[in-house]
Amino acid sequence: SVLLELKNVSQLYGSGEKRFVAVDKVNLTVREGEYVALLGPSGCGKSTLLRIITGLQKASEGDVFYRGQRLMGVNPYASIVFQTFALFPWLTVQENVELALKARGVEADNRRRLAIDLIDRVGLDGFENAYPRELSGGMRQKVGFARAMAVEPELLCLDEPFSALDVLSAESLRGELLELWLSGNIPTRAILMVSHNIEEAVFMADRLVVMDKNPGRVVADFEVNLPHPRQ
Ligand code: ADP
Ligand code: ADP
């Protein structure tokens, strides 16, 4: 079934002479069970689309539907993992994860328990009280994933989640995410991953959506063979 539907979504930026079309009439549908990679050159509007889909930003034109409902404000079914982690540096690992649970209205006692469980699931058992600066890039991104998963997102949006990591950390984190996704053991029903790495996209996703820039448009949208069938 259809989760996300973008209809003729456009985004203009700037004003006056500098006004330009960053995203031009994008149509995109994401269905349950899909792992979609959104590919394209820097500046083609990939991050902009993710912000529109998660409701962090309202598109200048067009419509966004989630499960058939027009999206207004933050999308409660989606969460996002950023390239550069975006953790609060003055909060511990556990506090960073708990904050996401608090935003979702989970009570204090449960927040603690759920946060510890999530941290454990991403393999950071024992680092609950560490601060982001004390962790490697790969570990920080695991906190990013734990925080995103805290809201049990149906749609998990990933904005180049591996590109700030060293090669080995990226490889292991990709493997761990894929394993979790293929196991079906997460509430997430679809993944939308921004990437500019075609190899990574083909390895992870079962569908590729390719954009070009000036203006940002979808120029190809096709399925690829699943490297590993989802259970
Ligand atoms: P990508 O993620 O594909 O690199 P972005 O969505 O970040 O693309 O950006 C698309 C274009 O819009 C780029 O030219 C970028 O500089 C511009 N842009 C992105 N965000 C803003 C903004 N908040 N204000 C003005 N221009 C922006
Ligand atoms: P990415 O390519 O991964 O999207 P960027 O470095 O292009 O990252 O953008 C980082 C942030 O800066 C984004 O939030 C984007 O919206 C904003 N941004 C990018 N270009 C501009 C711009 N020309 N004016 C204002 N904000 C911008």
From TrEMBL:
Keywords: ATP-binding, Nucleotide-binding, Transport
Domain ABC transporter: 4-231
Superkingdom classification of source: Bacteria
Molecular function per GO: ATP binding; ATP hydrolysis activity
Protein name (database record): Nitrate ABC transporter ATP-binding protein
Section of the entire sequence shown: 5 to 235 of 434
